[in-house]
Specification:
Length: 217
C-alpha cells in the first residue's frame, strides 16, 4: 500500500519500505492494480502527454508511462525515504531529468505543482483524512484524465483497515488509514468537470478512470 497522510507518513513509509518497493519493481515490475492504471492511460493515448502522480513512491507507474510515450512527469511525495530509490530507477531507465519530484502535502500546497494531462492517485486517498481536499486538488490539476485507486467499500476491508489502525495505535504511531465513500470521492471529481468512464472492482481495490468533459484526446 503506497498511500499516506501528512500525519505519521514518515513513521510508516520508511527507508526500508522504499528499498523493498524498488527491489520489487526491478524484480517483477508493477502489480495488477497499477497495471490497470497504466493500461487505461495508454489505451486513451499517452504519447506527448504530461503525467502527475501524487504518492507514487518509487515512481513505478510514471516509469511505465514515460517508457510508453509520456513526455514528462511530476511526482509528489510526503515521505523523503523514496527519493534516492526513485532517482536510481530513473537513472537505470535512462529517464533522469524527465521527472520533477516534489516533497510536500499536495492537498494543501498543490499550487506549487503544475497541472498535467493525466493525474494519478493510486492507493493514496485511503490514508489521507481529508479526501475532499486531496481529490479536489487532483481534479483541478487534471487537464484531461484523473485516475483513482482506493479500497473497495466492503465489510472485509472495514475489518482489515480497523485492524491496521489498531496495530498503529498499539505501536504508538499516528499513521492511520481510511475507507472513504467511493461515491463521495467521485462526486468531488465530477464537481470539477470530470466524468467517470470506467470502473473496476477487485477483491480489495477499486479503480475509477475519469475524463474531463470535452477534453481533446
Amino acid at each position: 500500500m503506497n498511500c499516506c497522510s501528512a500525519k505519521g507518513c514518515d513513521e510508516f513509509f520508511t527507508e526500508r519500505v522504499a528499498r523493498r518497493d524498488a527491489a520489487r519493481y526491478r524484480r517483477a515490475g508493477i502489480d495488477g492494480s497499477a497495471r490497470r492504471v497504466v493500461d487505461f492511460v495508454r489505451g486513451h493515448g499517452i504519447e506527448g502527454s504530461s503525467v502527475l502522480e501524487v504518492g507514487g513512491g518509487v515512481g513505478a507507474i510514471q516509469l511505465e508511462l514515460l517508457q510508453a510515450g509520456a513526455t514528462s512527469g511530476e511526482s509528489v511525495e510526503l515521505s523523503p525515504a523514496y527519493e534516492p530509490y526513485a532517482g536510481e530507477l530513473l537513472r537505470e531507465a535512462g529517464l533522469e531529468g524527465r521527472v520533477t519530484r516534489h516533497l510536500l502535502d499536495f492537498a494543501s500546497h498543490g499550487d506549487e505543482v503544475p497541472p498535467a494531462d493525466v493525474v494519478i492517485l493510486h492507493k493514496v486517498v485511503c490514508c489521507y483524512p481529508d479526501y475532499e481536499a486531496l481529490v479536489g486538488a487532483a481534479a483541478v490539476h487534471a487537464k484531461r484524465q484523473l485516475m483513482l485507486t482506493f479500497p473497495r467499500e466492503s465489510w472485509w476491508m472495514r475489518l482489515g483497515l480497523a485492524a491496521a489502525n489498531l496495530i498503529e495505535r498499539l505501536r504508538r504511531r499516528s499513521f492511520r488509514v481510511y475507507l472513504h465513500p467511493p461515491a463521495a470521492m467521485i462526486a468531488v471529481a465530477r464537481s470539477h468537470g470530470l466524468e467517470p468512464t470506467v470502473r473496476h472492482r477487485g477483491r480489495l481495490w477499486e479503480f475509477c478512470g475519469l475524463e474531463r468533459t470535452g477534453a481533446p484526446r
